[in-house]
Amino acid sequence: MRLMRTRLGARHDDTGAGLVLVVGSMMVLTMLALTALASVTASERLARHSQDYQAAAAAAQAGVEEFISRVNREDSYGSTIDCLNPAWRAPTTTANSCGWNAATTVGWAPVVPGETDPAAAWFHYSVDASRKTAEGSILLTVTGRVNGVYRTVETAVGKGGSTDYVYYTDFESADPANIQAYTAAEKASMSAAQRNACGINGHSNALYWWKKNAANQTRSSYGCEEITFIDGDRLDGQVHTNDTIFASIRTSGAPKPSFLEPVTTSDERCRTPGTTNSQWEDRCLRPSTNSLNGLANFNSKPPSYKDPLYLDDTSAEFVNHPGCHYYGSTRVIFRSNGRMTVWNKRVNNNNTAPVSIAAPDGTQRGCGTLDQLDAGADLEIPDDMVLYVGASSAPMRECYKGEIGGPTGRALPLGTYTGAAAGSGGTYQRDVNMEEPTKACSRGNLYAEGIVNGHVTLAAAESVIVTGDLVLADGRTEGSSDLLGLVATNSVEVFHPRMVTVNATRNYVGAPWYWGNPSGESDPSTDWPTRYTDPTTSSYFPSSGVQIAGSIQTLQHSFLVQKHSVGGALGTLYVYGSIAQRWRGIVGQGTNGYTKSYNYDKRLRYASPPYFPRWANAEWSLRYTGETTTPDEVRT
Q1: Which DSSP symbol is given to 412?
Q2: Which of 84, 103, 307, 522 is the most buried (most CB within 10 A)?
Q3: Strands (DSSP E) along 89-166, which ranges?
Q4: Which of 434, 433, 429 is nearest to 518 (CA)?
Q5: Which runs of consecutive H residues, i.e. helices, occur in 289-402?
Q6: pLDDT tens string 363-374
Q7: What value does the CA radius of gyration of the chain take, rounded to a whole number of Å?
Q8: Residue 509, Cβ density class (10 Å: 0-12 exposed, 13-18 middle, ≥19 buried)
Q9: How far is the C-alpha of 452 from the C-alpha of 463, rounded, in Å?
């Protein structure tokens, strides 16, 4: 009996073990289910945050587009605070017409008009229009908010202009006003149709290479002076011409002219450019049966068609732009310390003192007195302004030696011409470029060189003549704080003096003396253009040639080299910035003159030199954008 009870007891001790196992298993399964549920919930939160994160970025972009639409409807928008725009409202300690102060709450505008849900998409922006007038750009910081998630972008909004391209032309043929391209005798012998086609009778009558006139003829039928890109030429930046590019090599096997970024043309043939470099040459360059012509290396960047872009002649507006305004031939040499030396002699300005025009914020620069300008005035650069030269009321005559001014031994004009009457044993030397009527002392010509420290645009009612390197004190980098513009109603010219000798002569003993024909054309005894050390390389750059670190725009004529067809090889014409011209300028011919190296300054995508002209009918658009940290005061 005891045995039975023992067995029964043992059996009794195991009772419920299966139940415990079942309950434990259920608990494990429950924990696994709860873990899975938590994971799913966390994933949903992450997915939701990711959606909100992307939506907040889209809301910020919507704010950018909303502001651009406003400024395109009203060009002056952004210059002053819009008190009725909730997206602009923010705390501020700056006096304003809205009554906003440090306690003002941040304002938001819904992406969808009429939306009231605070978790929906909203945007807020701050506007810095301090450079709108001078540089044509507005700094816009926009924050998008969705369901408590914030994203902020910093953008530059501006109007498009010739600074979008490293190289722009309206016409690829030579400037009809260039007396080296078309002599007076050649113009006189032209037919009316030829004068129209080549632009002698004005650009509105001129023909593009691809365009036919009423007689069903293109410019190729009229013998106009055509200009070509040649082997050794290199353009690093986007290119546009309303015309058709002529590109060639001088000898078989020479490297083709090189375009490193996309090229656009208004030649209809380029609407279907093809897929290979040879097809691009056939359809987007000027066609030719000569095996050395119609050749270019597009560097795997297909060219394309683009509607024509036009430049308005806005040169008259420079008369009213802030800065220093001089009259008659003027010379300036910039120095790396942010100062400049300016010569504007009484003989050129006819005793007319310079005018200093204040910036919108009231800033005004000293421009020198008449006495100072006679000797060379040491002045502060007109930062964020212009240095403008207009015509004076002085007599229209050729400048005599040194009358334009300059340092000892390098005063302009070069030579010994004084305007004196011829006499026995008389002789003088002169620079033949100064014989051109456009170089008269009273005309609005500006001669410039040196190291530029600041933001300034050089503008001339006649021409800007580059007498030496124009380099940036901070160097050629995207971080440089210096920016230079050169704008001429006539042309921007690279100084290339050529000296001749003129002797007094007479026809017989006792006859009156007169000046004979010039002879012995040659380079001057001093080297020109003047070279300056480039801070980027701490050396002359290029090693041979001239550098212009600035944006060039000629509103009626072209960018050219004086006496381009003589003097031998001059090295490299290195431009860091942009070039825009009505007509194609000539910088070399055969083995004479310069090889081109034109390089885009990428800062021009979102900034431009002070008061630089824009495209006709240009609209505001996004020029630059990048994400930044959302300010703490915006998070609400």
Answers
A1: B
A2: 522
A3: 109-110, 121-128, 137-146, 149-159
A4: 429
A5: 346-349, 370-375
A6: 999 999 999 999
A7: 35
A8: exposed
A9: 19
